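Comment thread on ticket #2218

A.B. wrote:
> Attaching the input chain for the structure job we discussed in standup.
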Amino acid sequence: MLRIIGITASAIGFLIFFFPVCAGIFNFGVFAGTLLSAGLFAGCLMQKQLQAYASGSTALHMLIRLIQTGYVLFLVIAAAACMMMYRETRNLPTEDPDQTMIVLGCGLEGDRPSQMLWRRLTAAEAYLKRHPEIPVIVSGGQGPDEIMPEALCMKNWLADHGIEEGRIYTEDQSSSTYENLHFSRKVLEQNHLPEKIIIVTNNFHSCRAAMIARKQGYDCSSIPAGTTWWLFPVSILREVFGIAKEWVF
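C.D. wrote:
> Ran it. Output below, let me know if you need it in another format.
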């Protein structure tokens, strides 16, 4: 029974993690999820053969035990990371007016925000309209496949949706979450903006972004934007590895 459940679950997992490839998305989350699902599927499918081989080979028996232990350890780490992700989505901003919002970039589609970035901008727009005293930094450089800096696209989008341009500051050199926050500090200092920050990013990314911000000395809260449903499993898995990396380093 457990073998059938494992085969079914791993086959579904493979389809879920491989699906984004059909939309031209291939990142570490896709690779790791597809590989883990395929490995679990093969292990469950060949369970009897592996057990037979292992009974006559101490080395193979140890290897199988090592792989099983690795899977269990991964599940424990993943569960802990998911709890941290959830906790950070509850770390919402206070009503303190002395705060600066930082919206993290996330790719463009031509001169328009990607799906993920659109969700971040929509969440930022709603909060900024409720809190007209809060300034905002849009942070994101220009990738090799982009026709303009993400920050410029984000600024244009917010301005087109009713946010006063005088409240919008740009940081257009960054290429990672670390650089988003590191370079944004210069914008804060140069414009004498409040150093307590509100990070706007997708819900799965809020935890790691906040971890990086706190390592840089920020006092921060989070506004978690939604995530496109079919990208959620891939994004969560990628963040599990990302959070583990932040723990180690």
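A.B. wrote:
> Thanks. Noting for the ticket: The chain has nine helices and seven strands.
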